[in-house]
């Protein structure tokens, strides 16, 4: 029973640069799964629809995804869990952590712009974990770069070889559709009615039927492209795809809903089922009879009317049942999971049972922290969640001293969510410094403090770019009280030094050989 349920699950993240069409692709996938009836548009202030995956008020105002949403639906016998990560330039540590809950990733690339900076950053996190990456090259119904050039860029920038599962026939106003190499199908695109897709089976690339459908010039160009791919391109290799060494490429247009269903159906046959996870008790298989999972995300005030706080749990093994009692190793006690929920963005449904790969939300009265393991049977703990050094820092203070209690509550909750990291100075001034991975998180923090906790705050930006946790008995905070570095402590009172740049960090490392400078804190 457990094994068959696990095999039905596909849990993946969608990663991309801003404006590559990620939210649009997510919604089209939800449409195919019957999870929504109509896709909301993320742009256009006069349009009152909003993207299904964007629920926070600030996201609706700006037309971007700020937090990582979790959505689940069923399609063709599969249970699909989509982790929709923020793609904007100033995303947060929450994005990195969300990727740890995925078994594979769909990487979306704008056909005109190619591989962009943010895509590279997210790709590196996926690559670190060695998870399979499936590439969707979007906006083929607009003018795009040469497909061979895009493939070359994937290899040069990301170091990843690719195998096109289908191939575009023209682009922009000349875009006629895609040729499916594996199934020898042609899907024809009609710009005047993109919803209606006609599919023709052909007898290989030489089939004269292609000349009738495409015209002689387009057919000849397609033949030359496919022959070049067959001779000079990589071979299809499922093992290399599984190991993250080879990415299957799909071409299409998410906004026109063209090529999306083909992508989804290929993806479901090729993407891995939920994979095992490492723990202090060894490797835990998803088909293990004992339930286990870990908290990878905490979100406060998803429903402002109820001031609720939800902890997102990735199930790693066994069967989850509503009302079950599980062990909470960090607290050393058992807890009952009585109100589990699954999500379609803001929409929630109570969960009766769930299996490895599923994401469930747990009501959190303050019991959970990011990285916590919950389990049945023998007590165990999954390997810690990765922590990333903040890259932007600012001193924070409140405008109204009478709001200090609300400020401290908001600071605690938003720190536990991972929106910000908080540091205290150790020079006797009792200054509070916030650190974030992405610049926009300051804006998110300020907005949420004002609207969810009723607190107005002031920021004073600082020039530091790096935080390093320091280990070693010879550490003395006063040695780092310089213009280009500052000693602070984190919320667990661990020593941290903020540095202005890589040069000042190297200078400190060279002059303090008995100290260790870590880019993340050990739990």
Walkthrough of the structure:
The chain has 523 residues and is α+β, with helices and mostly antiparallel strands. The chain folds into 3 domains: 14-66 and 105-270, P-loop containing nucleotide triphosphate hydrolases (Rossmann fold), CATH 3.40.50.300; 277-375, Rossmann fold, CATH 3.40.50; 392-518, Alpha-Beta Plaits. The protein is 26% helix and 30% strand. The chain is built from 13 helices and 31 strands. Helix 4 runs parallel beside helix 5 and helix 11 packs across helix 12. The two termini are 36 Å apart. Residues 36-50, 52-56 and 62-68 have low confidence and may be disordered.
Instruction: Using the alpha-carbon principal axes, give the shape.
Output: globular
Approximately how much beta-strand content do the residues carry? 25-35%
- Major sheet: order of its strands? 27-24-26-25-29-30-28-31
What is the CATH C-level name of the largest domain? Alpha Beta
Note the main attributes of this structure.
Rossmann fold; 3 domains; single chain; 523 residues; globular; Alpha-Beta Plaits; alpha+beta; 30% strand; 13 helices
